[in-house]
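Lab notebook, page 48
Experiment: co-folding of the full assembly
Goal: obtain a model of how the components sit together before planning crosslinking
Operator: M.T.
Materials (sequences as entered):
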Amino acid sequence: MAFYFALVLAIGWYLKGRANTGEDFFMAGREMTAWIAGLSFLSANLGALELMGWAAATYQYGILATHWYWIGAIPAMLFLALVMMPFYYISKAHSVPAYLKLRFGEPTRALSAISFAFMTVLMSGINMYSMALVMKVVLGWDIHFSIWASSLTVAVYVALGGLRSAIFNEVLQFVLIWAGALLIPVLGLIETGGWENLKFEIAHHASPEYTHLWATLGSFNDNPMGIHWTGIVFGLGFIISFGYWTTDFLVVQRVLAARDLRSAKLAPIIGAAFKMMVPIIVILPGLLGLAVLPVKLTGEASAVASGGHSYNEVLPLMLARYCGPGLLGLGITALIAGFMSGMAGNVSAFTTVWTYDIYRALINGKASDHHYVNMGRWCTILGVLISVGTAYLVMSFASIMDYVQALFSFFMAPLFGTVLLGMLWRRATGPGGFWGLLAGTLSSIAMWAWVKVDHDALRYVALSPNARDMAENMYRALWSWIVCVLVTVTVSAMTKPRPDGELKGLVYGLTALPLEAEVPLYHRPWFWAVVVGVVFVVLNILVW
Amino acid sequence: MHDSGISIWFFIGLSLLVNGILITGAGIWEIFRPPANPVVLYSLHASVWWGALLLLVGLRYCIRFAPGRDS
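Observation: model returned without errors.
Model output:
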């Protein structure tokens, strides 16, 4: 673990000399290969909630958690690669809000940039708190020491090397996670006697429903998550997933750093291929926990009350079950690397949006490139300090975590509606984009507040009084996306469209896309997208 | 990323190499001094073969992407 901390700081120090211009610091010089951009794209998302949270959700809800890795990610990643990436890349936008500025004007950019910056540092704080909690539970470290040690490390290596440093460490973290976590499913399947025996054990210890991905989704009441297939397909698979993977700048920034358009299109496809495999190290350990752990895990509150273990501890418990001192050290390092990488992703995205889309756009637009790089470095440290503050806030008020995650979900679904219409519909106007985004976000907040005030409203928002939190989030996202699209279309129809000449490079039908005829088939993004799509369908059928 | 500096793959190789050495060493140590509370499937000595695998992959990447070597 000491070696890991030393190595990431050394990488940051080494890359300091290569982060002198704004393009270097904020966009990693736009010179990443498809592999590095793709792995970084995936890694930036492989933070605290991914590793610990989804293993815990699997223990709680069974294999249904896999939907967040497959239908909740793969179609969106392929759509980003093939349909949306050309517009982001050709427009030379340095961020998602910057694309909105080019397409819809300054008010839409300001709305999305301020919301994104605010949400990102809050999420970073939650990530930090989760990591400190793991260090406390698994290592017995003091929670304050954990927060400050990890956050200062992230602040130093991102402030020194900028996005390139964050990307390097994300790729390093990706490899470490696989090296540290892959042994759990391998040894777990040896212990249980293979997949069929594992299913038998889970049916015996929990319920046969826990190993079906789709078969139990015909009714809200037939599965542990209380969800219907329409929520999974339309809410998660379409709105939430597309909103996150195609418009959240935290992940899109990694692909924008690719060295050319073909690399930028291949990067999300490479990310999708690996995303399909992440359930091996996250979902399988959760399922194995159901079958082999001698203790019954419970919710956080009852675990604290009874002195037992909570769902959130399933991954560390499985790690400790199979791994001796050396392997345990690597596994814990991998977990910490995942947390730090998630935090670095948030901080580097925050830095870019603050410097370019808020500071330069609204406060000081005439400074030198050197000034903005310095602003980026200071802003990295400031972002980390605000995140530390958020971590302490979460520590004091546990329920804040729920609120912040809900806040984050308010924005993504409408933003996807705005960006999608902006890219695919030339008639969408600036006022249409702004009011659509605002109406979608406000409607999402209103629905959330409605259910908080009157729980019976769940039957309208989520179509069932039995829907759980996750189901409510999905339907709320779907409705807010629809509101955003309807308002955007209506306002656009009533306002004057921009001339086609101003929309070149921004909208489908007005943008010349480079041909790939001269490239061999196996180098074409379309070919690999089809391969990933076929594997995705086969995997879903295998665990139907 | 290779032509203008040290490749990311070299750093990854270095990390795997060091982890591989530490894990294999801990695994071999455990063979000669078995722990009082062994992990499940201790008899498979996962530390030894998994550590050796990481060591070999790390070594390969360190050599393949060594600074100054053309890719």
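Interpretation: The mean pLDDT of chain A is 88.
Next step: discuss with group before ordering constructs.
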